[in-house]
Amino acid sequence: MAALMFKVNRLSHNSGRASEEEDAALAATTSIAHWLKRVHGFEVMVTRKAEGKTGKAFVGNMTEEKAVELASRIASESFLFMVGSLLIFLEYDRNRRKEIKKQHKEAAERQGIMERARHEREVGLTSS
After folding, report:
1. Pick from 15, 62, 101, 125: most CB atoms within 10 A?
2. CA geometry: angle at 91 spanning 90 and 94, to 5°?
3. 46-52, long-range: CB within 8 Å, 24+ apart, which pairs?
4. How far does the chain reach from its first CA to its final CA, in angstroms?
5. Are 6 and 33 in contact (CB under 8 A)?
């Protein structure tokens, strides 16, 4: 999608009819393309380290199809990471609330025991 926008914007730029919105879109797609190249370079570096290879590797230009594939993979992995993080947070929050409820229940039971003990002492003192 970004590659298509880039081509359309470049064509309109070449025709000399580019508007400010088209200029902004071109700048955005150019920055996205630059960012994707950096991500690709980082991915190659991590892969090489995992394979035990040393030295710097030449990272060539990506094709538009490869850039779109990489962007879709990053988007899908980000979505999965966010869903997983949300589930972990919700489970943590549920356990925290459960623990607080348990503590309040225990405190109420202790308070009830103390009240009964105090009441029994008072009854024991008045009957003696």
Report:
1. 62
2. 85
3. none
4. 91
5. yes
Q: Are residues 6 and 23 in contact, defined by beta-carbon separation less than 8 angstroms?
A: no
pTM higher than 0.90: no
What span, in angstroms and rounded, lies between the C-alpha atoms of 5 and 28? 10
Q: Would you say how long the chain is, in residues? A: 128
Element at 52 (helix H, strand E) = none
Q: 8 pLDDT exceeds 50? A: no
C-alpha 113 chain-centroid distance: 47
Query: Residue 54: left if φ>0, alpha if ψ -120 to 50, beta else—which one?
Result: beta
Tokens of 63: 């094709």
- Taking only the tens place, the pLDDT of each residue in 77-109 is 999 999 999 999 999 999 999 999 999 999 999
Q: Measured between alpha carbons, how far is 32 from 66 in angstroms, rounded to an integer? A: 14
